[in-house]
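Q: What would this chain look like folded?
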Amino acid sequence: MSAFVEFDDVDEFSASVVGQPGSRVFFLNARSGPHRVTLRCQKQQVKAIAMYLRHLLSDLPPPEHRPTPTPIDS
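A: My prediction, written as structure tokens:
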């Protein structure tokens, strides 16, 4: 089975785990409004994505230097 889901804006992104060490199952979770997606994945995949996001966020300017969002005119 394959599916493609694209969110323009992600409201929440998290990782979760179920089970005891040695038999754990890892998940990545994303939410955009009422839509949620959960992906089962490998421990190494969760670690790689966390490292990537940490690097990405460290490149952002400090909050006081970020532009303020403005409403989009329709």
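Residues 27 and 40 are 4 Å apart (CA to CA).
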